[in-house]
Amino acid sequence: MSEVSLRFQTGAPQNLEQRFASRAAGMLPSEIRSLFAVASRPEIVSLAGGMPNLSALPMEMMAGVVKDLILNNGAEALQYGSGQGHPKLREQICDVMALEGIRANPDDIVVTTGSQQALDLISRIFIDPGDVVLVEAPSYVGALGTFRQYEASVVHVEMDMNGLVPDSLRNAIKSVRATGRKIKFLYLIPNYQNPTGVLLPAERRTEILSICREEEIFVVEDNPYGLLGFDRPSPNAMRAEDSENVIYLGSFSKTIASGLRIGWALVPQSLKDKLVIASESSILCPSNFTQMTISSYLANQPWREQIASFCELYKVRRDAMLESLEEYFPKEATWTKPGGGFYVWVNLPPEIDTKAMMPKAIVAKVAYVPGTAFYADGFGSWSMRLSYCHPTPERIREGVKALGTIVKQEMSRRGSELK
Amino acid sequence: MSEVSLRFQTGAPQNLEQRFASRAAGMLPSEIRSLFAVASRPEIVSLAGGMPNLSALPMEMMAGVVKDLILNNGAEALQYGSGQGHPKLREQICDVMALEGIRANPDDIVVTTGSQQALDLISRIFIDPGDVVLVEAPSYVGALGTFRQYEASVVHVEMDMNGLVPDSLRNAIKSVRATGRKIKFLYLIPNYQNPTGVLLPAERRTEILSICREEEIFVVEDNPYGLLGFDRPSPNAMRAEDSENVIYLGSFSKTIASGLRIGWALVPQSLKDKLVIASESSILCPSNFTQMTISSYLANQPWREQIASFCELYKVRRDAMLESLEEYFPKEATWTKPGGGFYVWVNLPPEIDTKAMMPKAIVAKVAYVPGTAFYADGFGSWSMRLSYCHPTPERIREGVKALGTIVKQEMSRRGSELK
Predict the structure, then answer these.
(1) A18/A24 Cα distance (integer angstroms)
(2) Once rounded to an integer, what is the mean pLDDT over residues A267-284?
(3) Is the pLDDT of residue B292 over 50?
(4) pLDDT (0 to 100) of residue B31
(5) Does any domain span residue B125?
């Protein structure tokens, strides 16, 4: 049966766009989207994705966890649950956060369908069209997309190799306020940031918290990678130092399994009720089944050791990437040296357009994400994000080698054009 | 450790409300919310909830399904998936919808975290503050909450024992447009409606579709209960008759298990891309694990027979409720006679305030939902929704008997007050 015959036409398609809400204009595909279809072909070495590597997760064990859950608690696991999230899991989340110095009350936690949903709900509660959200430069592409849908005006704040620069934050606040606009919050990823892999040191955390408290700007601390430090533990979470002005987002996507879609927000008490209501309106309740899978896993399995296995797995991949960048990339390129997480950020000479270079990379069987995806303002054209989380170390070396060749060709081509 | 010592205070709580977006004013608890905490106590016969009854679902079978899924496909099931939803599940959803006469292309389906998320995303795409959404009178409380968060103006359209009245729809459209407001869509539940249990007959479906096409108003057809007809199959879905002007919402919450949180939207092709982008911004992707659980269940288990078992289970409960209403309720009360689904709607004499009567019912160990919860405009004060889906037939009889006594007492009390 052809595609056409499947459609039961009753009239001409209507002009939908005229009937959309104004916010729908911001519902645009990200630069990463079209890329991922190509990058997922098996012959391509994908340094583009941020998919966790599940090869260290014992599937026999997980199968046992879910089987026992249904046999022992099926009637609860397969039923609607609480809009705020499963009470036992919220207690266990407190134990997980304690590893990063956070003391929290389970009642201040709202469990979400991945931390992306928490980001969406926080945006829904705070952002009126035109409100300003401050973000790192560059920042997480999924957050930029959400802020755009709520018609926020995104203002990037300068980073260096130690993360967000406090003085730049002060200046950004001043210049935004000079234009009369409201700043709703500062969104940042202090640990092994996406896309740069950079870590914000403890003293900068304190300084940024103090600036934001003083200026009455919330800090939205997104922390999916905090437990994935390779060589030493990350500094305490910012939320550990400030429970009233920090909205903390956590996730099990990188420490257990992303396919369960369980994240959470830990919020100041005064915000919790609104957040639960917003979440119920959005999804009624998160899945009891996936929440209780995580709860049972945390209760009965050696989860700290499992995170250590993930760290080991990612560390050898990070090493493979840094070594091969050193070996195959031109001396004009610079890159970050992440101490954890999934990503390396590469700056090339400014004459290189990493987006325009993509098709050549794909032909050479390697994919990455062009830097512009991580900026709301068109910046980043000579940068790229390389992720080392998923391929084997051998494939990473192969991919970086191929990419280094392309970059060098591109530099010499641009060099001769400029002569 | 006390509650207080768990909180690490760093300053006075800020006045949050001043910083909320204007839409946050609409994030209010529903009337049902506070009720559910009370109604879930074991000594109370809850005729309030809409939780499906899982006692007919074989847990050994479900445990086998999830165990095999992880063993055979764990690396995919526990990983991020497609924003649009798992391709195989989208094909199977077409088979499920075919039971109600729908011919669809899997590419026009977006899988969501319960159909509530689909409702949220459709609202996000279409509703600007002040836009009108037409709904049945009464309508689903969760839909009303979502429309309120997007600052829609909800206009109720009259129903009778055969559902939405087409002439009332014509009048509502005319009078809304006379005020210059935009109507974005008509939201309705044609099968065993929540909260009334009423079925919209085939000829009215056709007439309503024709009105909406002519007036260029989308129909959002929410159909969680369509396969739960007790005596005969439901009429074809409205989407079966009109693929261009109907946005169809489906759910596995009532036919498989609500705790998996899997629903879907089937939309006109021109709408699909926006819907996927909105969903990615909201949750990145639905859970591969719960999607593949459903997919594997549909592929390997006798799911049509399972739905028939659910119908049998609900039918005896519906009968118990209708019989005991007949036996225990005063002759002045009237109620619907649902042919499927979960709910009976009861109208009492107008001097009865069902919300004010609730505490007395709770004392008599029975709970229901007051009618005002299902109206955006304060109407419904002498009505109530009774659900028969969850308790045993014996408990239903016990609950309806206790409630009948309370209603009669209330009528005689109000009667003597009015003398």
Answers:
(1) 10
(2) 95
(3) yes
(4) 62
(5) yes
Mean pLDDT along residues A2-31:
64
Contact A88, A111 (CB under 8 A): no
What is residue A233's three-state secondary structure?
Answer: coil
Among B291, B345, B325, B320, smallest CA distance to B407 is for: B325
Cβ of B3 within 8 Å of Cβ of A149? The answer is no
Of A63-67, A178-182, B229-233, B338-342, the poorest mean pLDDT is in: B229-233
Over residues B170-195, the mean pLDDT reads 97
Who has greater pLDDT, A12 or A78?
A78
CB–CB of A213 and B117 under 8 A? Answer: no
Neighbours of A233 (CB within 10 A): 12
Whether residue A331 is found in the same domain as residue A258: no
pLDDT exceeds cutoff 70 at A11? no
Q: Is B281 close to A27, i.e. CB distance below 8 A?
A: yes
Chain Cα centroid distance, residue A344: 14
Q: Is B179 exposed, middle or buried (0-12, 13-18, 19+ CB in 10 A)?
A: exposed
Chain A residues near residue B80 by CB distance under 8 angstroms: 51, 253, 258-259
pLDDT tens-place string over residues A339-388? 999 999 999 999 999 999 999 999 999 999 999 999 999 999 999 999 99
Q: What is the CATH number of the domain that holds A365?
A: 3.90.1150.10
Q: Residues A334-346: pLDDT tens digits?
A: 999 999 999 999 9
In the chain, the amino acid numbered A351 is: E
**Minimum Cα–Cα distance from A63: chain B residue:** B67
Quick one: B113 and B188 in the same domain? yes
Q: How far is A326 from chain B (nearest CA, A)?
A: 31
B283-B287-B289 Cα angle (round to 5):
170
CB B358 within 8 A of CB B39: no
| DSSP assignment string, B50-101 | ----GGGS-HHHHHHHHHHHHHHHHHHHTS---SS--HHHHHHHHHHHHTTT
Last residue of a domain, one of B300, B315, B343: B300
- Is B44 in the same domain as B189? no
Domain of residue A257, CATH code: 3.40.640.10
What token pair was written down for B64?
Answer: 């086998």
The percentage of residues in chain A with a pLDDT greater than 90, rounded to a whole number, is: 88
Q: Which of B310, B285, B29, B26 lies closest to A262, judged by CA?
A: B285
Q: By the 8 A CB rule, do B258 and A79 touch?
A: yes
CB pairs under 8 A between A and B: 301
Total domain count, chain A: 2
Between chains, do A281 and B146 touch, taking CB under 8 Å as contact?
A: yes
A265 and A313 within one domain:
no
Q: Are residues B262 and B118 in the same domain?
A: yes
Same domain, yes or no: B34 and B179: no
Question: Which residues in chain A have their CB less than 8 angstroms from residue B70's CB?
Answer: 59, 62-63, 66
Last residue of a domain, one of B238, B273, B300: B300
In a domain, residue B7? The reply is: no
Is the pTM value of this prediction over 0.90?
A: yes
Kindly state whether residue B407 falls inside one of the protein's structural domains.
yes
- What is the span of the domain harbouring residue A44? 28-50+305-418
DSSP A344-364: EEEE--TT--HHHHHHHHHHT
Whose structure tokens read 């009455």? A216
pLDDT value at position B2?
36
- Cβ neighbors of A205 (< 8 A, separation 6 or more) are A190, A235, A236, A238, A241
List of residues 6+ apart from B396 with CB closer than 8 A = B45, B47, B317, B320, B321, B324, B388
- Give domain status of residue A186, yes or no: yes
Whether A5 has a pLDDT exceeding 60, the answer reads no
Residues B206 and B64 in one domain: yes
pLDDT, residue A40, reads 76
pLDDT in tens, B188-197: 999 999 999 9
The answer to whether residues A277 and A324 belong to one domain is no
Which residues on chain A are in Cβ contact (under 8 Å) with B142?
A: 280-281, 284
